[in-house]
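queue> holo job accepted (2-acetamido-2-deoxy-beta-D-glucopyranose)
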Amino acid sequence: MKTFAFASVAWLLLGVVNVSQAQRETSLKVVDALRDLHPAYQQLRDLVVNAVAGAKINSSEVIYNFNMEIASRKESFLQTAIQSEANVLRQVNGQAVTVDTSCLGFLRQSVDVNMNLAGVSFSNCLNNVDASLSSEVARIYTELQVNETSFVNLSVYDVFRGQNVFVNPQTIVDRLVERFSSLQQAPVELVGELTELVDAFAARLGGVQAAYSSCLSINDQLLQNTLSTALQQLQQICLGTLLPASSTSDPTEPTEEASESTSAQTPEAETVVPTENQPEPPTPGVVNAL
Ligand SMILES: *[C@@H]1O[C@H](CO)[C@@H](O)[C@H](O)[C@H]1NC(C)=O
Ligand SMILES: *[C@@H]1O[C@H](CO)[C@@H](O)[C@H](O)[C@H]1NC(C)=O
Ligand SMILES: *[C@@H]1O[C@H](CO)[C@@H](O)[C@H](O)[C@H]1NC(C)=O
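queue> job finished
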């Protein structure tokens, strides 16, 4: 009786062992699958780090280009303003002694005040740029706070959740294989997403730049108007006469290079004397009272 009981238990145990042998094999395969997965995860981590760093570097370059562009527009605005002022002052200072000096003095003050006002407007335009740039930079850096975990499930081990490696190893292996194939897709998507972010950032900065340019243009136009008014006042109020546009001060006239810098501006006053130095097509909106 006892012997029989023992025998049957032994037989049962043996049976269990036989049944689970294949399953144990599968359980071990889980480890193989995990081993396969780890290099893929490492690659992905590296790739995410590199892609994000690349996106940050690209954004940094976008910012650099933006700043260079702003600087060059700033410079051309300043040059135009300074040149225009010089042209008007040349007219005011070149009047005959018969012209009322106090009237000319008022004109000089007027020109000076309007230059100062242009300076105010210049700062205003830049303040707008500054505010927009700061918020755009903050935004792109927030957007680039992509890390591995936000992008893909980097926990390899969550596939074990709710599963038992000895009871249903095949499920786990299936999940790991599935995870592996989703890892393969991930890089392409990530790089695409990051590139979109950087491109959108560059486009938004382009908008800021355009707004800055138009701010400068409007202010430049205002300055040109006031300077042009000063020239009219010179004639109408101070009873002066406009000097011919020419290189009065330099006797060595047809210096092709000098003409570029001294008289490359467009005529505001009617006195466009076709002098020896004909500059190349002048920049639009730029005054030349020479
Ligand atoms: C990774 O990103 C997720 C979601 O964006 C965020 O919750 C988590 O704090 C980030 N981890 C680190 C280390 O930055
Ligand atoms: C990560 O896995 C969890 C559950 O396994 C899922 O809910 C979540 O959507 C996954 N996240 C990503 C980014 O795949
Ligand atoms: C960064 O710029 C390089 C070179 O232009 C480009 O190949 C890469 O795809 C860019 N990366 C991102 C995330 O925009």
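queue> The CA atoms of residues 162 and 172 lie 10 Å apart.
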